[in-house]
From TrEMBL:
GO molecular function: chromate transmembrane transporter activity
Species the sequence originates in: Paenalkalicoccus suaedae
Species classification: Bacteria, Bacillati, Bacillota, Bacilli, Bacillales
InterPro entries, A to Z: Chr_Tranpt_l_chain, Chromate_transpt
Protein name: Chromate efflux transporter
Similarity comment text for this entry: Belongs to the chromate ion transporter (CHR) (TC 2.A.51) family.
Gene: chrA
GO-annotated cellular components: plasma membrane
Amino acid sequence: MPNSNSNIVKRLIEILLVSTRLGFTSFGGPVAHLGYFHEEYVRRRKWLDEKTYADLVALCQFLAGPASSQVGIGIGVIRAGILGGIVSFLGFTLPSVIALILFATVLLGYGIADTGIIDGLKIVAVVVVAHAILGMAKNLTPDLRRKTIALFAIVAVLLWSTAFTQVGVILIAGLVGFLLYRNQSIDDAGEDFKFPISHRFAGVCLALFFGLLIALPILREVTAHDWVALFDSFYRAGSLVFGGGHVVLPLLEREFVPTGWLTEAEFLAGYGAAQAVPGPLFTFAAYIGAVIGGWQVGLLATVAIFLPAFLLILGTLPFWNTLRKNAKVKGALMGVNAAVVGILIAALYQPIWTSSILTALDFAFAAVLFFMLVYWKLPPWVIVLTGAVGGFLMTLI
């Protein structure tokens, strides 16, 4: 038993060191993160084989929440159980959480909102979201039917802008995808694989996920406490986002800007700054929380927005072997992913474009940044730094 415990401790330390290094160096968004994970965990360390990694990625693409973070959690679970998943998450996530809380502190404490830097970061947000849309549209809407689903999502989100519109669009798109693609053929699903999680524990996690989703809004109304309201908003955003970090933007914007928790300029500045840090984009919640109430609320926001991802990945791992062979489930997911593209396009227009591109100079600067990112393939932190400096210089013209 001592040897076994010692082995687990060594594995946990190893996971922490490796995931923290990835947390400091993994720039480029969720797709890039999966590439970093593959290189480190599959090719270099051989903690899992190609097929198991591909199956894990497929599962996390199916779930709501940040796919790359959930893959990291899953790898930690494979390596050292549930504690391994927690350690893997902390190592990969904390570097960007700390960086964004510090950015929020500087934003509020040193008045950089009046220097033009904010305007430059808002233009960066335009460029990054536009780039994300191009890549996602190519992969998620390859045929006319899915392009049509995306078009429906654009029109619905822009013309009926309510707190429930996006959730309704996702549900309808899932139903349409189920009807259109339920009879598709399923490729070879490969061999089954096992995770060190019992079906009972998984069931508890899923029950807790749905229970909190229902109970938190009720508790929010009963208590009228700010911390409960914030936890509910971030938890709901983390529970209803399909397609990765960029899609959380419109959900968070509608939760916090119209209600006056923070201004639209502060929101978009933080979103632009989030592109400069490595790790998952969901850590943008840490920035929002820090702007609203300091680092304590920043940490609360981080826990709230990532908790659904934890509960879902731990709750579905034991059942994935069945789900991944179900054509109807896969068809519904195809419809949801197409709607995600439409939601992103709508978000690109409102609020990002309408509040960022106000003059011909703004558009010209956005075009330069887009070229740097897409064609020169410069790292995101270079784009963000250029945007901040350019925004400051434009105030001098």
